[in-house]
Specification:
With about 70 residues, the chain is of the alpha+beta class. The protein has one domain. The protein has one helix and two strands.
Length: about 70
C-alpha cells in the first residue's frame, strides 16, 4: 500500500511540473505573438507613409491602454 502512495505522489509531482512547464511555454508564445503583431502593424504603417515620415511607438499603460503610434515629419 505504501508503494502505491509513493508512486501516486511521484506521478502527481511529475504531472504538476509538466503543467507548470506548459503554462510558461504558453505565456512566452503569447508574448511572441503579440510582439509579432505589433511589428506587423508598424511595418504596414511604414509601407503606406512617405519616406520622410517617422513612426514612433508609445507603450500602452498598465491599465490596459493599448500602444499608440505617433506619426511625424
Amino acid at each position: 500500500m505504501t508503494d502505491i502512495i509513493k508512486l501516486t505522489s511521484v506521478l502527481t509531482v511529475i504531472t504538476l511540473a509538466a503543467a507548470a512547464a506548459i503554462a510558461v511555454t504558453n505565456s512566452k508564445t503569447k508574448d511572441r505573438i503579440a510582439e509579432q503583431q505589433e511589428n506587423a502593424q508598424k511595418i504596414a504603417l511604414q509601407q503606406i507613409m512617405p519616406p520622410n515620415v517617422t513612426i514612433e511607438q508609445r507603450q500602452g499603460g498598465a491599465d490596459g491602454t493599448p500602444d499608440q503610434y505617433w506619426i511625424s515629419q
